[in-house]
Amino acid sequence: MLRSLPPQLLAALDRDFITLAHRHQEPPAHARNGGDWTTWLMLGGRGAGKTRLGAEWVRAQVAAAPPYASRRALHIALVGETAHDAREVMVEGPSGILRHAPRGERPVWTSTRRRLEWLNGAVATTFSADDPEQLRGPQFDAAWCDELAKWRLPDETFDNLQFGLRLGPQPRQLVTTTPKPIALIKRLVADPRTAVTRAGTHANAAHLSPAFIEAVIGRYAGTRLGRQEIDGEIIEDRVDALWSRETIEKARVDAAPGLQRVVVGIDPPASSRTGADACGIVAAGIAEGGVIYVLEDATVQGLPPDGWAMRAIALYRRLEADAIVAEVNQGGDMVKAVLSQVDRAVPVKEVHATRGKYLRAEPIATMYTQGKVKHVGAGFAELEDQMCDFGVGGLSGGGSPDRLDALVWAVTELTKRAEWVGPRIRSLGSDRPPWVPYWAERIR
After folding, report:
1. How many separate domains does the chain show?
2. Which end of the chain has fewer CB atoms < 10 Å from its terminal CB, N or C?
3. Is residue 176 domain-shared with residue 315, that is, in the same domain?
4. Which of 267, 286, 269 has the alpha carbon at shortest distance from 428?
5. Co-location of 258 and 399 in the same domain
């Protein structure tokens, strides 16, 4: 279709940003409370198109171009992390205002005055978040704040901007940033006058280098850094949680070595009705030297007992595990019976919870800080969310830590010295005869 269009129409289409905009670049209709918004907070991953959106939004404010603007803004603040960023990214950058302004609408940039001036009299001035005092005195009817989560003095700078955002009947501001769990970002998200849109790097993948997609996204996808910088998520730690994101990232490895024993931990739900707790299913193995490697989280929700049993046994077979370790407090004999119906040959170790979840998890968290437990790969986002949100009172949302419970049962089983489950013994090294049981080697 594009090849059939005349050059003039192609040029006009190229200037019509809203026609080609991604969904997350389209203006929000309402704030969180359903009313008009004062702040549009665009949380996005690296390369998601945040800067281009900011540049086009400013251009629309100057021209009163719908749907981004219904009236002309004549005094605009451009606030960057530093003076250099404001100039090199927001104004002169590859996605900046000058690069994408049509030739006949391009403003004049006076770097010594930090000003962009349009023919219709509109003026945009750049400011640095390193110097909040710059924003004392000037007044505006629109503002674009870029990478607010990286500002050195976010609260002081943003507060000064709010005092100056006082011209016109409805002054507005656009905030484009890769999120971090700073207080200001969380405050804006909770503000009923804020409209929030989100997007990950993948949303704009067609306009990014294939090498970047393969190298960067392939490496960091699923990690804490990747979820923040690629997926655009606000990742934060609970103050009283047993685990921290930093601890988990230090425990992450690309692959596990040879394992002496592998088990699948199960935390079965009390019910299979819609909205019931998930069935936690986590596999882990122990290597020579006693280091435990978490291999996979296969947790499922909403399945009947035979459904989660089939999922657990399929994981057991695929990993050639030695046993399934299942908590039976909720279902008693039913848990083992359901697993036996699927495959009678699978050895099932029943465990009873005699202590609270926090007390059971506490020694496992200590093992993480000691480097005795590792996560293989980055496919544990939901499990790690539970780990970093689990404190003395449980999860902050009050739900069941099903994935965490399954992890605790699996790791606890692997730390037991005198336990041998399964029809075979995995070799602990070439210096031990194959008939010496696992616990004997551990005691030696």
Report:
1. 2
2. N
3. no
4. 286
5. yes
